[in-house]
Design a protein that fits this description.
InterPro entries: Longin-like_dom_sf, Longin_dom, Sec22, V_SNARE_CC. This protein is of the alpha+beta class. It has a single domain, classed as 2-Layer Sandwich (Beta-Lactamase), CATH 3.30.450.50. It contains five helices and eight strands, in the order E-E-H-E-E-E-E-E-H-H-H-E-H. It is elongated and about 95 Å long.
Length: 243
């Protein structure tokens, strides 16, 4: 399944377009986007000049917090999850088209998906690529990305089976490398720092949520008592008023 799509100018790493998502398809989307931006930065420096490449995102282990409340005590469990995603990119006309998919997703489909994006992006925006001055200048291209992404999601459709059987499009010679090799130690340390900051931020968020849950628990506990006292008071007042 296609999880993430980004397009950038190779000469300076400027992001040009992105397949927007609502966050449900991909946990820790921002972390992966930081990896992609680091890759674009490397490409702008002339590193990793292969025009087509697959990059494994592992073997990173991510920790996802789960919050539990027991007897008004907050318990946070950090679950270990091993990454099973892979980046694929092509570079044409000094533009990098990149997507991230499940490891089991056919490499052939991933690169054909990128080729479709490249053809349309060059047709619609080709004359403006060099002059784009701000990030995501072609954000409207998201509409085409989403439409094309839907066509490639299900690998068992007749359309995609035909593409997989297309002998004229081969990907056996495309190099596969690990993200540690591609990004280098410096970028990895930056990402570890970013991950630590994110985890601290999430811990604060869960602490706030725990306080809210405690407040709600107190309300549920004492609200019935308050209602009973209120009803008794009203009845007592009415009795005195009538008599």
């Amino acid at each position: 399944m296609v999880k993430l799509t980004m397009i950038a100018r190779v000469t300076d790493g400027l992001p040009l377009a992105e397949g927007l998502d609502d966050g449900r398809d991909l946990k820790d989307a921002e972390f992966y986007k930081q990896q992609v931006k680091a890759l674009f930065k490397n490409l702008s420096r002339g590193h990793n000049e292969a025009s087509r490449m697959s990059i494994e995102t592992g073997p990173y282990v991510f920790q996802y917090p789960s919050l539990y409340i027991f007897d008004n005590v907050m318990i946070v469990l950090w679950l270990l999850v091993r990454s099973s995603l892979i980046f694929s990119y092509i570079i044409e006309g000094r533009v990098c088209y990149l997507t991230m998919c499940d490891r089991a997703y056919p490499k052939k489909l991933a690169f054909q998906y990128l080729e479709e994006l490249r053809n349309e992006f060059e047709r619609v925006n080709g004359s403006q690529i060099e002059t784009a001055a701000r990030p995501y200048a072609f954000i409207k291209f998201d509409t085409f990305i989403q439409k094309t992404k839907k066509l490639y999601q299900d690998t068992h459709t007749q359309r995609n089976i035909s593409k997989l059987n297309d002998e004229l499009y081969e990907v056996h010679q495309i190099m596969t490398r690990n993200v540690q090799e591609v990004l280098g130690v410096g970028e990895q340390l930056d990402q570890v720092s970013q991950m630590s900051s994110r985890l601290s931020s999430e811990s604060r968020m869960y602490a706030d949520k725990a306080r809210d849950l405690n407040r709600q628990a107190l309300i549920r506990k004492w609200a019935p008592v308050a209602i009973v006292f209120g009803v008794v008071f009203v009845l007592f007042w009415l009795k005195n008023k009538l008599w």
